């Protein structure tokens, strides 16, 4: 590789203007994310407003059902990761008695830790909505489909997935 092949560097080894621009843009974006962290109700309200705008856009345009279906599946996967524990108690080697409360002073109590924290859940869901909204501006993503089949398939997939998730969650707490 030559001297100027590294990302964001010009021929002389100094950061290029484009590299500095995108670095600064990333810093500003991260700063806004950091400032929004304590305001979960406001963050989710903005996400719901974006969702409503997206749904109205899809309804008015009468298209982009595949994009909407993919967004729904993505949100379902995020929701399942949000509900799931980081460490599955059924996979731990505790024997057959299942999870139990600490009985000795030196045993550690492990609270429920989510596989996907709330902030990352919100951030990923919002990014998904924004990307889906951008896709509605391109005709290439407007694949003609019979949307009622997609709705029925999504409902069936949701019920099967949530039934399995509830069964796994209940078995962890009951045993």
From TrEMBL:
Q: Which domain of life is it from?
A: Eukaryota
Q: What is this protein's record name? A: Protein RER1
Pfam family of the protein (one): Rer1
Keywords annotated in UniProt: Membrane, Transmembrane, Transmembrane helix
Q: Where does it live in the cell?
A: Membrane
Task: Name the job this protein performs.
Answer: Involved in the retrieval of endoplasmic reticulum membrane proteins from the early Golgi compartment.
- Note the PANTHER family from the entry: PROTEIN RER1
Family according to the record: Belongs to the RER1 family.
- Membrane topology value: Multi-pass membrane protein
The membrane-spanning stretches of this chain are 41-60, 66-83, 145-162
> What are the annotated GO cellular component locations?
cytoplasm; membrane
């Amino acid at each position: 590789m030559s001297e100027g092949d590294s990302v964001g560097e010009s021929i002389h080894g100094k950061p290029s203007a484009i590299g500095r621009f995108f670095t600064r843009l990333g810093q500003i974006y991260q700063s806004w994310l950091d400032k929004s962290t304590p305001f979960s109700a406001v963050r989710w309200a903005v996400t719901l407003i974006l969702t409503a705008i997206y749904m109205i856009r899809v309804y008015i345009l009468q298209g982009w059902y595949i994009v909407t279906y993919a967004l729904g599946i993505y949100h379902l996967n995020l929701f399942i990761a949000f509900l799931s524990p980081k460490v599955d108690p059924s996979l731990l080697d505790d024997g057959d008695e299942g999870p139990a409360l600490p009985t000795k002073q030196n045993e550690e109590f492990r609270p429920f830790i989510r596989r996907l924290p709330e902030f990352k859940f919100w951030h990923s869901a919002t990014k998904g909505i924004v990307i889906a909204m951008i896709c509605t501006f391109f005709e290439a993503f407007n694949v003609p489909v019979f949307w009622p089949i997609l709705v029925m398939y999504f409902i069936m997939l949701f019920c099967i997935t949530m039934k399995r998730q509830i069964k796994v969650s209940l078995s962890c707490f009951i045993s």
